[in-house]
Amino acid sequence: MAKAAFISYASEDESVASTISAYLERGGVSCWIAPRDVHPGADYAAEIIDGIETSAVLVLVLSEHANSSEFVKREVERAVSKGKPVFPVRVREVVPSKSLELFISSAEWIDAWHPPIEQYLDRLAESIRTYLYGAGAKPSADVVVSAASQGTRDIKRPVIVVLGLMVIVLSVLLGLIMLRGPAVAPSRAPGAPAATSSTAQTPPPAGGTAPGSAPAVVVAGGGATGPCPHSLSVNPDLPTPFSCTCSAEAATQSAAVWGTDVYTDDSALCRAALHAGVITLAGGAITIVRSGGRPLYVGSTRNGVSSNDYAAFQRSIEFKGAPPPPPGPGLCPHALSISRELPTPFTCRCTADVMLSGAVWGTDVYTEDSAMCRAALHAGRIPPTGGTITALRVEGRPLYVGSTRNGVQSNDYGAFASSMTFR
Q: Would you state the CATH architecture of domain 336-422?
């Protein structure tokens, strides 16, 4: 079935993409989104192509993950080649990668990185409806209503007669029941305990709760805790320390986390707790403490959870009982371009796992959006096992020439606004 909007997103952004899809559909904009709309047993790639071709527009969930996703690039390229308009929604404060910029540079962007994201989605829905139906128009329910009315007019007379007879029979039965009056409770046998009313409840045991009452929640103390919210940003005024319990489902669900050791407060709480090492995949109780905003949050992969980089954010969270970070410089972000306001010289630490991937443009002097640790390896500043680097932001160049060094292949690129080098 044709849909109004195809939702293109990187797998790391599945949670926010699902939120966008659900909100649009509540507003009357039908969506095609994987994996929900992929038929079981069907060829996944073929289903994606069909989804794009049968949808009127493509909504791009733009983030640092979308920038590095080959699948997102191909989906956007396919949509543009078929004449479908692209509606980019920036869920993180990033610029589009070079591979995406060609396709969306002229599109109307919606910046939606400050929670709650729903405050921006009415504009997105209205933009899509305007494209589909014209300015100020909305899909009408008249077609649905008239179809239902036509179906009613087409009902055969015998069906109407049968329905009438059923109503008569039910009325007679109801009348007989009312005439019989209330049923008399059977007498109890001698010595048997008297029946109690359903409203006469046995008092709860000492320290317990009455049946049907909500479980106790203990904040920053011992004892039972209630379930955790998705993120602490649901109420920025909620005092901390705050204790709650993560279920196994919340700990293992696909949801976004930003930072390492210190996280943005809109990160998925239980996934961040798993990343921090204070719970296992089975879940468990956690205690969260608010801290001030940071100019930079660096992602990493820990305990099976991959967190993300993010620039300055106004509210942070940490977990009691988490192992302290190692001494020395913090982890390096994927690229220096994560924050144009990040002062340099900037010293950070590259781990061995991040040396294996990421695009690099230039030689000795690199585009600012090059993968920092891969560029430092290319420049010969660190070995493949990682190490500490110091990056300097320098002026943009009219040309960046790629080369192969130290097992890293960098790429050519034309003029770019800002560069980096290493000392």
A: Beta Complex (2.170)
Q: What is the pLDDT of residue 196?
A: 32
- What count of Cα atoms within 13 Å lies in the side-chain half-sphere of residue 238? 21
- Tallying the residues shown for the chain, one arrives at 423
Residue 355's closest CA among 381, 329, 330?
381
The two structure tokens encoding residue 311? 């620039």
Over the range 128-154, which residues count as b (16 or more CB within 10 Å of their CB) and which as e?
A: bbeebeeeeeeeeeeeeeeeeeeeeee
> How far is Cα 218 from Cα 204, in angstroms, rounded to an integer?
19
Instruction: Please report the beta strands in 25-171, taking only residues with DSSP state E, as ranges in sequence order.
Output: 31-32, 55-62, 86-90, 110-111
Cis omega before residue 85 (within 30°)? no
- CATH classification (class only), 232-319: mainly beta
- Ranges in the chain, pLDDT < 70: 1, 135-224
**Quick check: helix, strand or coil at residue 61?**
strand
Q: Which CATH number fits domain 3-133: 3.20.20.140, 3.40.50.720, 3.40.430.10, 3.40.50.10140?
A: 3.40.50.10140
Q: What was the pLDDT predicted at 66?
A: 93
**Model-level pTM?**
0.53
**Rounded to whole angstroms, how far apart are CA atoms 74 and 381?**
34
